[in-house]
Amino acid sequence: MPLRHIAVSKLSIHIFVQGKKSFLHETKNYYMAKLTQEELLAIFDAVKKEVAAYEKGTIKARMDAEGKYDLWNEKPVEAFGRKYPAMFFASAMVKSDYVGFYFMPVYSNEEIKDVFHPDLLKCLKGKSCFHIKTTDKELMKHIKTALKAGYAQYKKNGWV
């Protein structure tokens, strides 16, 4: 595709290719192209694969649709001074420019972050949502490690 022109502003770069406008976002030290729906679904599939490995025993999928998958522990539990009929474990969800990896064990016990790889922690936005923007094998390995630690924590607490 022949490049027509590039417009640069403080916050973003706009590239015009054959009359079509493509947006690039500025991240810390570089510009990153906005992910396509196909790329987002590929990332979703990779994250879902890791999360789905924990669909066993009392942990069941409540939602399994294109772009959204979540696991809940269907066992009644007592946590944080209350009784719950079920407890959320983890999910993957396609958002506008990332795949959200939502992970309850990090919300319920922040000390679990000590076992997370720094590359995974860079993706943490808020308390328990990781913004995943790549299918990088190393990052998927870090997600797998986090899930293993979270499941072990749930098991230790008697929640599974």
Textual characterization of the structure:
The chain has four helices and twelve strands, in the order E-E-E-E-H-E-E-E-E-E-E-H-H-E-E-H. It is of the alpha+beta class. The N and C termini lie far apart (53 Å). It has a six-stranded antiparallel β-sheet with strand order 5-6-9-10-12-11. A four-stranded antiparallel β-sheet has the order 1-2-3-4, with no helix packed on it. Mean pLDDT is 84; it is low at 1-31. Helices cover 28% and strands 38% of the residues. A hairpin with a 2-residue loop joins strand 7 and strand 8. The protein has two domains: 1-34, no CATH class; 35-156, Aspartate Aminotransferase, domain 1. The protein has helices at 37-52, 104-108, 118-121, 137-156; strands spanning 3-8, 12-17, 20-26, 31-33, 59-65, 68-73, 77-79, 82-84, 87-94, 99-103, 124-125, 129-132.
Mean pLDDT: 84
Rounded to the nearest angstrom, the distance between the terminal CA atoms is 53 Å
Helix proportion: 25-40%
CATH-defined topology of the largest domain: Aspartate Aminotransferase, domain 1
Order of helices and strands: EEEEHEEEEEEHHEEH
Strand content: 35-45%
Short key terms for the protein model shown above:
alpha+beta; globular; Aspartate Aminotransferase, domain 1; disordered N terminus; 160 residues; six-stranded antiparallel β-sheet
